Amino acid sequence: MLANLDEFKKQANYINGEWVNADSGETFDVHNPATGELIGAVPNSNGTETARAIEAAHKAFNTFRHVSVKERTAMLRRLRRLIIDNQEVLAQILAEEQGKPIAEARGEVRMSASYAMWFAEEARRVYGGTVPSPWADRRIMVTKEPVGVVGAITPWNFPSSMLARKIAPAIATGCTIVCKPAEATPFSGLAWGLLCEMAGVPKGVVNILTGDPVEIGKELTANPLVRKITFTGSTRVGKILMTQSVPTVKKISMEMGGNAPFIVFDDADVDRAVEGAMASKYRNSGQTCVCTNRLYVQSGIHDKFVKKFVEASEAMKIGQSNEEGVVQGPLINEAAVTKTEDFVEDAVSKGGKIITGGKRHQLGHGFFEPTVITDATLDMKFSKEETFAPIAPVYKFETEEEVVQMANDTEFGLACYFYTQDLGRTFRVMEGLEYGLVGVNEGVITAVEAPFGGFKESGVGKEGGHQGIQDYLEEKYVCIGGLGL
Ligand code: ADP
Predict the structure, then answer these.
(1) Element (H, E) at 142
(2) Is ligand 1 within 6 A of the CB of residue 131?
(3) Ligand 1 centroid distance, CA of 235 (Å)
């Protein structure tokens, strides 16, 4: 089944299977970050509409939880098919509101389809168990049940696939869900409403609304009908949502900020390391929570690596998402550009040397030049903070011990990468790094089959992998007695 771009670009909330406006009739504008052009307006909802969506999800849960797993799997398979069939339109909507090159947008949409498929497959393997009983006349059973209504809040950097990671396991387990996509990129989120409608997902199972993040977040966390909050975004907001979830003791899954180190040892294959660093640093213009934030390069290979990395950075084609050959788009908004300038200024004032880039790109709007800064030191802001920008600070190091210590010197623990050809070092460093995701001689490692999630202040819980479905399930212990034995 196909829909055209106008049909997919919904400018209304999807609540209980209906397309509705905010109660106030108010909307907010959405702009293309590459041109500043107005691309549409979506409902400016608040707590009232959220409460209504939760009510609908709660009502739907009472029946959806009993829909057979075979049927729910079929819905997810239909969703996957629809996403693949409509890939081009979905990618266009995504690229227009987010700014990423169309090839990356297509890749993200395919990833969404893969999540639908993965959770369709996982749904059929939600096994419970029996436990040897300590009593002769009783038996112990452990069953799995859906947690109930899920509240989901997603970011603008992956506006399609971050919803996929939450909507697909909800459907797989028989949960229902209320989603709030990010203000900057609501259209890819609302498109999920149409996809669910087309896939025959029952009314109220998936609800999507846009609007005031604070008010919607408050209702999602305070409402006792919501049993789980799943969030992807900054650590700052994640902590607010965790705190707000305490009074009603909700289950939580949090994918929050990162500060990924990328370590290149003297014995690394330098070309492979450069290739990995390019992908890991500049993907989505540096705006992913697993993007390299800090590059640590051992002194023996430092100059060679920097030379090749700078050449590759300068060769990147920057431009509009739909231009042929473009590999880097703009940052999401003006505030992101100002913040990037601030990181660069701070580094330069503390002795950092700009080898390439360092300023706004001549294309204007959200564009920033790919930037490599050497002589980075631990007192520079990007040593501690996530940049979410195409700036690559390079720190020179001497020993393995020293670099593992520096890499771990952060409250974050999401992704990290290192390059070496030494087997012993591979295990020592892998085991020493306090991170949830480790790329060894690989710069892009996300896969639906693997558990994605951070250590420390980067998160709680996993998305994807066989672990990803467990967060949507409750385990119930059943003791059966009086067996007459
Ligand atoms: P980013 O830095 O990626 O913009 P945010 O954490 O600010 O990350 O945003 C991620 C998501 O959280 C977005 O959907 C945003 O609207 C939402 N959000 C921001 N502030 C709040 C809040 N106080 N309560 C609930 N959601 C929020």
Answers:
(1) strand 139-146
(2) no
(3) 10
Question: Residues, the chain, total?
Answer: 485
* E strand map for 420-480: 437-440, 455-456, 459-460, 473-480
Closest C-alpha to ligand 1, atom 22: 214
Strand pairing class (391-397; 371-374): parallel
Mean pLDDT for the stretch of residues 97-107 = 96
Query: Where residue 256 falls among pLDDT bands split at 50, 70, 90?
Result: very high
pLDDT at 299: 98
What is the greatest pairwise CA distance in the chain?
83
Of 151, 154, 182, the residue nearest 42 (C-alpha): 182
Q: Please check whether residue 217 is in contact with residue 241, taking contact to mean a CB–CB distance below 8 angstroms.
A: yes
pLDDT at 431: 98
Phi, psi of 463 (to 5 degrees): -120, 140
End-to-end C-alpha distance for the chain, whole angstroms: 58
Q: Whose CA is closest to atom 19 on ligand 1?
A: 213
The three-state secondary structure class of 456 is strand
Q: 484 C-alpha vs ligand 1 centroid, how far in Å? A: 57
Give the single-character DSSP code of 284: G
Residue 117 CA neighbour count, 13 Å, CB half: 14
CA 229–ligand 1 middle distance (angstroms): 13
Number of Cβ atoms within 10 Å of the Cβ of 467: 15
Tokens (6 digits) for 259: 């500060």
- For 477, phi then psi, to 5°, come to -95, 125
| Cβ 146 vs Cβ 123: under 8 Å | no
Angle, CA of 101, 106 and 108, to the nearest 5°? 95
C-alpha gyration radius of the chain: 23
Indicate the pLDDT class of residue 485, thresholds 50, 70 and 90. Answer: confident
Is any atom of ligand 1 closer than 6 Å to the C-beta of 163?
A: no
Is residue 324 scored above 90 in pLDDT? no
Give the CA angle between residues 389, 182, 213 to the nearest 5°: 120
